[in-house]
């Protein structure tokens, strides 16, 4: 569950900082120098990422598996040769998921404030609330997955109540 938490937590930090800057700086100050603050604030994160990439080693089990059976010379070609259908379905699923997610966040923010009549602060607060809800959802899905199976958790998450024929639309 930790990898899926990265995106909503990142959005909470980014939109939260943007909201704080928007509440405390005039538009002129934000355009002249305030936009630099988020970039400067990422320096520790970039350093941490570089440190992690250069200081973490593989587990002993992975190293033993690599010594026992060397990987293919061109792993992608081997995967595509035997599983091209599954790769295409997985790629389409990932693209569909991320396209919807980023349309609902980045594009919606610009559209909602320029054409939807929402103030920037109101829309940022709404997105922050949505991302907090997403964090709760990811944590809950991880807990459900640990208590039952990942397949059951995914199936439950993908199901939605169907409208009956008698219900009004």
Account of the 3D structure:
- The model has no long low-confidence stretch (mean pLDDT 88).
- It contains 8 helices and no strands.
- By secondary structure, it is mostly helical.
- Helix 6 packs antiparallel against helix 7.
- The protein has one domain.
Brief summary:
With 169 residues, the chain is an all-alpha fold.
Judging from the principal axes of the Cα atoms, what is the shape?
extended
* SS content category: mainly alpha
Uncertain ranges? none
Number of domains: 1
Quaternary: single chain
Main beta sheet strand tally, sense and closure: none
What's the SSE blueprint?
Elements: H1 2-24, H2 27-34, H3 36-41, H4 43-55, H5 60-68, H6 75-114, H7 120-147, H8 150-158
Task: Name the features.
169 residues; 8 helices; 0% strand; mainly alpha
């Amino acid at each position: 569950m930790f990898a899926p938490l990265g995106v909503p937590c990142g959005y909470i930090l980014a939109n939260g900082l943007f909201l704080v800057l928007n509440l405390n700086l005039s538009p002129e100050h934000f355009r002249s120098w305030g936009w630099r603050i988020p970039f400067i604030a990422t320096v520790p994160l970039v350093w941490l990422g570089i440190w992690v990439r250069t200081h973490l080693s593989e587990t002993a089990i992975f190293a033993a598996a690599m010594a026992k059976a060397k990987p293919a010379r061109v792993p992608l070609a081997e995967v595509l040769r035997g599983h091209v259908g599954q790769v295409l379905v997985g790629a389409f699923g990932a693209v569909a998921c991320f396209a919807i997610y980023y349309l609902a966040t980045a594009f919606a923010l610009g559209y909602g404030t320029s054409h939807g009549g929402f103030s920037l602060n109101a829309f940022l607060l709404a997105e922050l609330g949505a991302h907090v809800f997403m964090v709760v959802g990811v944590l809950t899905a991880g807990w459900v997955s640990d208590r039952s199976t990942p397949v059951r958790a995914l199936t439950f998450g993908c199901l939605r109540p169907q409208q009956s024929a008698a219900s009004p639309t």
